[in-house]
Amino acid sequence: MQAYAHFLQPISRLILHNTNLDSEGEPIEPRRPWEYWHPLVNISIAHNECSIACPRDLAVELFAPVISGLKPELQKSISISKEDYSAIVIGGEGLEAGQRVLDLSSPLALAKM
Question: Which residues are within 8 A (CB) of 103 and not within 5 positions of it... i.e. 6 or more apart?
Answer without folding.
Answer: 95
